[in-house]
């Protein structure tokens, strides 16, 4: 509801006047970071966006046409280009470039900046080959840029229906693109897989990847391409979907294989033996298939060319509450797992389940790294993985066997893992009437990529905690709206209600030794939700931060060596590459994602921007613009008796997930409604029904809310602000 921009701190204990809205706060207070449904204003183009380029289409076509398996493997040895989302097939994000190093990084300067003309989250790492950069922006707008000068070559807007942004949980984001044999591949938010001509941006083909348009499937992850196959998964476990991953022919877009992550209706034939085996770990009395079961593989997909396996990280259960989807318990395969598939056929090879019977939104979709390391002096081919549940895993990638796991943050749901690789759970984590799991549903590590430097032997990991306190939903009905059910009007199915949290949030950068499973050094940040990492042979680690900085650290000890402001919070990871024998580092910044919709740690709201640095760079930063908010809302007429019911509607319509609690905090990249003008809330019906902000992500609530509901929402918004307004002396 409403406009974009502005953070919501966790609710403070404000005053005596709060008692009249406490019941509504029960569902609201802890969910400022969850299920964001999704609006925001695109900021207008500014004068410093550049046009024109010296890059010729025939040159681009010739060079991008070389990008295939041989090219990527050859580039891995030198790291001159950045042709895939994680730099190499192993997704190490380790560059062998060392022109920029600990001795001279202080001389880094800006070479150019490029305005992505967006106000939503920027989560993608740019791809660069032969000085041509490809960057995805919110709503899957693709930009091709001359990396020498920062000039636009072309851009492509797939025309995602922005009024349907509410169908996803966590902002209108894209985590990247793929390049292969002259094509750029993007997976659009609305489920389309699209191939573009890398030289011109012309659309070559598109295919609909969705098996069901009734439930809210979306795509936010980056496609991966190998051996002529484009592989992509979907998101939407909170909205009633059944997860699956699919491979498509890179030339035609025709489907080649598909593997589901959880079983379907057991009264129907199973797709394969892996689904038959999985069904034995679910209780059919919960009729999990009605709500899909979840397991959406929304981010991590990694390819091992030597073993010809593709590794897929699977998502959380739908609903989260296992007692609702599988009443008698069970591991609920293949939720919260790493699954190995045959890259040619998509057939199941092995799995390792990191969170059996997920109950806390502990996805295993976080980026994984393939590495060859020595364990007890024996060389092992491993997967390094730090999923949401707070444990760092080392898994044998040849067979899925558990090697080790150690918590990298404090956890309270398990004491560790036994020799067989099963968690030693604390009973209260599942059975308590109210429980604040640590880490919370946003995870000890989310989608922000980590990196692995084989020279130091360390993984550089963005770690965090975002508090959430949960109670089981007592009258859950699958796919049905109910007062106070978070996002119920928009298809949300969680199975929990939310209570004010007690633990404190944090964000930090960890250097982790995966062999000895221990922390080597850390850097504390002012907020959760910091960016992914890049590490280099120059003994450096680069990371953007929630409070609007891009920082270089000594990879050996964490000493800060250099930083530059970014004008907004930075959540994506950087890339580095060589052009004309000069090393560049580029990062795309733009505040957003689940936490970023309602929280912020900087005063600036600059549009999504690519910053590119090199030694001796002297370009000027763009002007930074501060968040502008009204004073606390006042003057909207309301009936106090409507406040409680208005709060329940505010939760059911997912307003809280976008705007936070009115007047509590400052908002994130979407404005807190306690700081809008009285005119907007007085005319709320004109915003909710066929309103002016639909093309910026605002849902249309026609047929979902009534005229009477509007008055109750107005009462809750203004009444809440009045309750927390400081009293004049």
TrEMBL record:
One Pfam family matching this protein: PQQ
InterPro entries documented for this protein: Cyt_c-like_dom, Cyt_c-like_dom_sf, PQQ_b-propeller_rpt, PQQ_MeOH/EtOH_DH, PQQ_rpt_dom, Quinoprotein_ADH-like_sf, Quinoprotein_DH_CS
Keywords, alphabetical: Calcium, Disulfide bond, Heme, Iron, Metal-binding, Oxidoreductase, PQQ, Signal
Obligatory cofactor(s): pyrroloquinoline quinone; Ca(2+)
Domain Cytochrome c residues, every copy: 641-721
UniProt record similarity statement: Belongs to the bacterial PQQ dehydrogenase family.
Protein name as annotated: PQQ-dependent dehydrogenase, methanol/ethanol family
Organism, as annotated: Bradyrhizobium barranii
């Amino acid at each position: 509801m409403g406009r974009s921009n502005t953070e919501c701190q966790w609710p403070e204990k404000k005053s005596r006047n709060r008692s009249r809205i406490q019941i509504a706060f029960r569902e609201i207070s802890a969910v400022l970071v969850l299920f964001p449904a999704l609006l925001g204003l695109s900021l207008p183009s500014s004068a410093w966006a550049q046009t024109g380029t010296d890059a010729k289409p025939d040159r681009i076509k010739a060079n991008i046409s070389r990008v295939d398996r041989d090219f990527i493997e050859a580039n891995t040895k030198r790291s001159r280009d950045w042709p895939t989302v994680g730099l190499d097939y192993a997704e190490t994000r380790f560059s062998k470039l060392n022109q920029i190093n600990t001795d001279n990084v202080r001389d880094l300067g800006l070479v150019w900046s490029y305005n992505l003309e967006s106000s939503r989250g920027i989560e993608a790492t740019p791809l660069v080959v032969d000085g041509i950069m490809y960057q995805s922006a919110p709503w899957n707008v693709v930009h091709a840029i001359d990396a020498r000068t920062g000039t636009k070559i072309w851009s492509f807007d797939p025309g995602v229906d922005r009024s349907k942004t509410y169908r996803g949980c966590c902002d209108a984001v894209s985590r990247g693109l793929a390049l292969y044999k002259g094509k750029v591949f993007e997976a659009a938010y609305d489920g389309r897989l699209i191939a573009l001509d890398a030289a011109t941006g012309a659309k070559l083909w598109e295919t609909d990847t969705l098996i069901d348009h009734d439930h809210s499937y979306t795509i936010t992850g980056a496609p991966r391409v190998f051996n002529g196959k484009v592989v992509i998964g979907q998101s939407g476990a909170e909205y009633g979907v059944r997860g699956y991953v699919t491979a498509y022919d890179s030339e035609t877009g025709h489907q080649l294989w598909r593997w589901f992550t959880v079983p379907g209706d057991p009264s129907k034939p199973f797709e394969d033996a892996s689904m038959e085996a999985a069904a034995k770990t679910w209780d059919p009395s919960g009729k999990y298939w009605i709500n899909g079961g979840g397991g959406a593989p929304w981010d991590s997909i990694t390819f091992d060319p030597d073993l010809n396996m593709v590794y897929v990280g699977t998502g959380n259960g739908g609903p989260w509450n296992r007692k609702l989807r599988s009443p008698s318990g069970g591991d609920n395969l293949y939720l919260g797992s790493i699954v190995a598939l045959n890259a040619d056929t998509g057939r199941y090879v092995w799995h390792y389940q990191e969170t059996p019977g997920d109950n806390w939104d502990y996805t295993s979709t976080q980026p994984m790294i393939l590495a060859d390391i020595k364990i007890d002096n024996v060389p092992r081919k491993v997967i390094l993985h730090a999923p949401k549940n707070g444990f760092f895993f080392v898994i044998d990638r040849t067979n899925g066997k558990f090697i080790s796991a150690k918590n990298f943050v404090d956890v309270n749901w398990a004491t560790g893992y036994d020799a067989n690789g099963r968690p030693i759970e604390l009973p209260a984590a599942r059975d308590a009437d109210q429980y604040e799991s640590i880490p919370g549903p946003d995870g000890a590590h989310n989608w922000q990529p980590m990196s692995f430097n084989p020279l130091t032997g360390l993984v550089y990991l963005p770690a965090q905690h975002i508090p959430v306190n949960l109670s089981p939903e007592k009258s859950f009905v699958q796919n049905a709206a109910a007062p106070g059910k978070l996002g119920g009007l928009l298809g949300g199915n969680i199975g929990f209600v939310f209570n004010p949290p007690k633990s404190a949030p944090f964000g930090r950068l960890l250097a982790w030794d995966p062999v000895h499973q221990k922390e080597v050094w850390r850097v504390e940040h002012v907020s959760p939700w910091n960016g992914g990492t890049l590490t280099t042979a120059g003994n450096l680690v680069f990371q953007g931060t929630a409070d609007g900085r891009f920082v270089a650290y000594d990879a050996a000890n964490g000493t800060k060596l250099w930083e530059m402001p970014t004008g907004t919070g930075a959540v994506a990871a950087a890339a580095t590459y060589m052009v004309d024998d000069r090393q560049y580092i580029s990062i795309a910044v733009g505040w957003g994602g689940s936490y970023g919709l309602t929280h912020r740690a900087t005063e600036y709201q600059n549009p999504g921007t690519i910053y590119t640095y090199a030694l001796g760079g002297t370009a000027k930063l763009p002007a930074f613009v501060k968040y502008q908010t009204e004073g606390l809302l006042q003057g909207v007429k309301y009936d106090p008796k409507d406040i409680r019911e208005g709060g329940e509607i505010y939760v059911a319509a997912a307003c809280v997930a976008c705007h936070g609690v009115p007047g509590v905090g400052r908002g994130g990249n979407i404005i807190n409604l306690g700081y809008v003008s009285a005119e907007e809330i007085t005319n709320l019906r004109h915003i909710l029904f066929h309103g002016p902000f639909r093309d910026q992500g605002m849902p249309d609530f026609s047929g979902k809310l009534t005229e009477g509901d509007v008055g109750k929402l107005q009462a809750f918004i203004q009444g809440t602000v009045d309750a927390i307004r400081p009293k004049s002396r």
